[in-house]
Design brief:
The structure holds two protein chains of two kinds.
Chain A: H1 16-38, H2 41-58, H3 68-93, H4 95-111, H5 120-135, H6 138-148, H7 154-161, H8 165-189
Chain B: H1 7-14, H2 27-30, H3 32-49, H4 60-79, H5 83-110, H6 120-148, H7 153-179, H8 183-201, H9 204-220, H10 223-240
The chains are: A mainly alpha, B mainly alpha.
Chain lengths: 190, 249
């Protein structure tokens, strides 16, 4: 193995073995990012597959401009962001259906949680986080996930999304407000 | 007068981002009110941070590698002019182009007789809607077939070919739908493509598993039904185009 987890590949080395190593090193962290953005396991898998396909095609052109991991996360973020925007457009076109879909997604997520009492609280949190995320725009959701879970700076998020620092801040502020609205009552009672 | 930190400033402090305004150094430690608000915010955001993410199955990486490499090979083969695939793609494009060409010439010739016949734009719209409706119908029939047919080895190959046909033809129709401002139809086609492409590109050893996944996803998303609804809407719109009606194109 050529240590792809640590060192970006040299130009022109997109062969199958190295690609396998790349997937082994990064697929799960990309899946976590994609899941946090899409809130759906199947969509997360589709996003990672899409991102890795794009990465495979572009590996030849990849010049050690930045860490490989950063590059892969950026591709995954873009793929998930595109999916969210498309989903949002669809939701605007067809509101009742998307509500049903969102309901079924929430239901499927909560139904995955074991029914034991000690898990009820975790299940409630997940449901409320899902609700908050559903109320966020694609940009708010992406900015929030990148800031809150991935630890990116606001500057970096703005560059990824192609928006100004001020706009990025507003996205994160709005996202946090939505999360607080949904979770504060739960946190206060627990 | 004491200036307290705003909610947004507390968020910036939580994420250790610089505050825009100066003069708040040490304020949090000295102000019980702001500290309390900051702690409340911290509790909420920490709860969110602790949320579990479902781990994918143990074979996730292997499956992913297989799918991506298979998809890439398929595209490479297609690029070296795999004739049947290219022919199918060209046929789909040609069918659509023929529709539009007929629409255009029909409109040119008869568009002026407005009282008795359709205008050029109406004819064009009607033919486009017919083509899109037929494609949605084919997509639905293929999905239903994928859902119901036995998955023996021979059948799997045939089903993969059917899925591949649809995936190959779809981009031409999707592009036409997008150009015509039919965003919802284009979205639905893209969703169907995304669903089918994994199964169509799966290597023989993984086709059965991919078909099972496709069936589950199609059912969860109620895709055949939604395709039928959209096809019906398209057909209704197509029928509603009469000489007196206004074209939406």
């Amino acid at each position: 193995m050529s240590g792809l987890g640590q060192t970006p590949p040299e130009k022109g080395v997109a062969n199958d073995e190295e690609f396998r190593a790349l997937v082994m090193s990064h697929a799960r962290s990309l899946h976590r990012l994609a899941y946090r953005m899409t809130r759906n396991e199947q969509d997360a898998e589709d996003v990672v597959q899409d991102a890795l396909l794009k990465a495979y095609r572009a590996l030849d052109k990849f010049e050690n401009r930045s860490e490989l991991s950063t590059w892969l996360h950026r591709i995954t973020t873009n793929c998930a962001y595109d999916l969210l925007r498309k989903r949002q457009r669809r939701a605007e076109d067809d509101l009742p259906e998307t509500d049903a879909e969102a309901g079924s997604v929430t239901a499927s997520l909560t139904s995955n949680v074991p029914g034991a009492d000690q898990n009820a609280h975790a299940s409630d949190i997940r449901r409320r986080v899902n609700d908050s995320m559903e109320r966020m725009s694609a940009t708010e959701r992406t900015a929030f996930v990148l800031r809150h879970f991935e630890g990116h700076t606001l500057d970096h998020i703005g560059a990824t999304l192609g928006i100004s620092l001020a706009a990025t801040k507003q996205c994160v502020f709005r996202a946090v407000r939505k999360v607080r609205q949904d979770l504060e009552p739960l946190v206060q009672t627990s | 007068m004491i200036h307290h930190l705003s909610d947004d400033q507390l968020v910036l402090l939580y994420y250790r981002e610089p505050l825009e305004e100066s003069g708040f150094d040490g304020h949090l430690a000295a102000c019980a009110l702001c500290l309390g608000r900051f702690q409340a915010l911290t509790r909420v955001l920490q709860v969110v941070a602790q949320e579990d993410v479902p781990e994918p199955a143990g074979d996730f990486e292997a499956r992913l590698t297989g799918l991506v490499l298979a998809a890439t090979r398929k595209q490479e083969r297609g690029r070296i002019l795999s004739f049947p695939r290219m022919a199918r793609f060209l046929a789909a494009g040609a069918a659509l182009a023929a529709c539009l060409l007929v629409a255009f010439s029909f409109g040119r010739q008869f568009g002026r007789v407005e009282e008795q016949t359709l205008t050029a734009a109406q004819t064009q719209e009607r033919l486009l809607l017919t083509a899109l409706g037929e494609h949605l119908g084919r997509s639905r029939v293929t999905l239903v077939e994928l859902k119901n047919r036995d998955a023996s080895a021979a059948d799997l190959k045939a089903l993969q070919a059917a899925a591949d046909n649809l995936v190959t033809a779809s981009p031409a129709f999707r592009a036409a739908a997008e150009r015509a401002g039919e965003g919802q139809v284009a979205s639905m086609m893209e969703e169907t493509e995304r669903l089918l492409v994994r199964f169509a590109a799966a290597p023989p050893g993984e086709a059965k598993e991919e078909l099972d996944g496709l069936r589950r996803r199609a059912e969860t998303r109620d895709l055949p039904f939604r395709l039928q609804v959209m096809q019906t809407q398209i057909e209704k719109r197509e029928k509603s185009i009469t000489p007196s009606s206004q074209s939406s194109l």
